Amino acid sequence: MKDYGYQQVLIVTDPFLIKSGLVEKVTRVFLHNKIKSHLFTDAKLVSSLEIVKQSIDCYQHEQIDCIVSIGEGAAYDYAKAMIYLQSHHAIFISDNIKKPWPLITINTTSASNIDNINPLLDQNKNELINLAIAGSRITRLLSVTEPELMLGLSNEFIAALGMNSLTYAIEAYVSTAANPVTDACALSAIKILSNALRRAVNYSLDLQAHESIAYAQFLAGMAFNNASQGYVQTLAWQVSHFYHQPLTICNAVLLPQVQAFNLKVVEKKLKNIAGAMGIRVAHMTDQLGAEACIAEIRRLNCDFGLPS
């Protein structure tokens, strides 16, 4: 960032990540390198166009050089929405286009590799518009996945992020849009997460475990980005907004429920997932293997103290 001459950055994140202590780690790095940071900490999953515009107006006089989003889902999408509106002054392309703020993402889970659809409320028309916030003008300048940032963070935080990545991998694998490439990425991610996540949760200073999780998150992101989302992610956005809960935890809660619903049509795939999670499935029927998979997901939630 110093090589690009950035002196003032706007950090976009959410209260869950502020509470975790992760954002403080990042701001200390900026401070050490004499980069001034401004914090926007109220990124929401569902935001009105007017709220996003107001967020931008608050920082226009600060001479922001770039935006840094920390986290997945809300923070990443909110940062993209801010950049889009800052450069276009409208949700649809206009003639008055400014040079957009560069975007740097600091990833906490696989969702940061994905251009999700973000519901925005157009208050002038009083209607909800579902938009895929993507395009060359808001392509990230840099994407950072740094395992050391996770060291020493709370067990609940690490578990929620890990289960979120597991959700992306499983949803990609059972997706109707899956293909051999996404299947390979998804199963590899599931295997790595199943081996490393408990270690990272039980001992948050295990750098090797966090490095393994980072690789798994990247693999899950590649799988999910090319195989599309399923009912877990679709429902989690709504539950997260309605109950004001982190999307990561909502995904963890819904993952076993949705796979139980899917069971009859993806028995074989769920059995394969169970095998990737370390369960001996060689002598199981597809149905028993699928049930073992769902039981293992519930067990992970229970072991991590997450709702199930």
From TrEMBL:
<keyword id="KW-0560">Oxidoreductase</keyword>
<feature type="domain" description="Alcohol dehydrogenase iron-type/glycerol dehydrogenase GldA">
    <location>
        <begin position="2"/>
        <end position="112"/>
    </location>
</feature>
<dbReference type="InterPro" id="IPR056798">
    <property type="entry name" value="ADH_Fe_C"/>
</dbReference>
<dbReference type="GO" id="GO:0046872">
    <property type="term" value="F:metal ion binding"/>
</dbReference>
<feature type="domain" description="Fe-containing alcohol dehydrogenase-like C-terminal">
    <location>
        <begin position="159"/>
        <end position="306"/>
    </location>
</feature>
<dbReference type="Pfam" id="PF25137">
    <property type="entry name" value="ADH_Fe_C"/>
</dbReference>
<dbReference type="Pfam" id="PF00465">
    <property type="entry name" value="Fe-ADH"/>
</dbReference>
<dbReference type="GO" id="GO:0004022">
    <property type="term" value="F:alcohol dehydrogenase (NAD+) activity"/>
</dbReference>
<dbReference type="InterPro" id="IPR001670">
    <property type="entry name" value="ADH_Fe/GldA"/>
</dbReference>
<protein>
    <submittedName>
        <fullName>Alcohol dehydrogenase 2</fullName>
        <ecNumber>1.1.1.1</ecNumber>
    </submittedName>
</protein>
<dbReference type="InterPro" id="IPR039697">
    <property type="entry name" value="Alcohol_dehydrogenase_Fe"/>
</dbReference>
<comment type="similarity">
    <text>Belongs to the iron-containing alcohol dehydrogenase family.</text>
</comment>
